[in-house]
């Protein structure tokens, strides 16, 4: 079984077991504290906001539906059939389109680009959950989706998130209930060095156009009632014009 096949199987198992309720998944926070925050940083910097927007690694589509209210054409893409089933059930009006896509397979990314033309890409917390051998391929796939005019807004856990996650995983009473299934299915977040992401982008022919730091919100809360947030970095990338 290939690395990608193992990764796909892990996500299928996770999403088949995932509850339907809003906020039942660790990272499935309300768009008000996720995509809405990100929108303020990437929308003004898009070269062409009218391009199709691909929500890459869309999962159950919570952020996709929010983005579909703000952009003319939004496609939620994921490599898990079960995740897309969740997304479609939660979107009976068809606010967005949904597409089975393994962006680490360049042929698949190029096929979608041939259908859409240049696209903008929103991706939250996907690269750090990839197997190390697939990370450059994933970024290459993003570059294929962007074409010449698209922009990618990537949000990834920073190195500072590792001790936070480690502390959650090693709590005396076990990890938080919504984090436990992630570990159980073998998709625990990996470590991506902060300096590695711009290197992946450069190798794919993309330039970092803007960057910053912003906590990544989760749906779990600490014992004092505060929302658990993970340190993260955001990058806007594209081809220089």
UniProtKB/TrEMBL annotation:
Q: Does the keyword rRNA-binding apply?
A: no
InterPro entries, alphabetized? Methyltransf_12, SAM-dependent_MTases_sf
Gene Ontology molecular-function annotations = methyltransferase activity
* One GO process term, biological-process aspect: methylation
Superkingdom classification of source: Bacteria
Q: Where is the Methyltransferase type domain?
A: 54-151
Q: What is this protein called?
A: Class I SAM-dependent methyltransferase
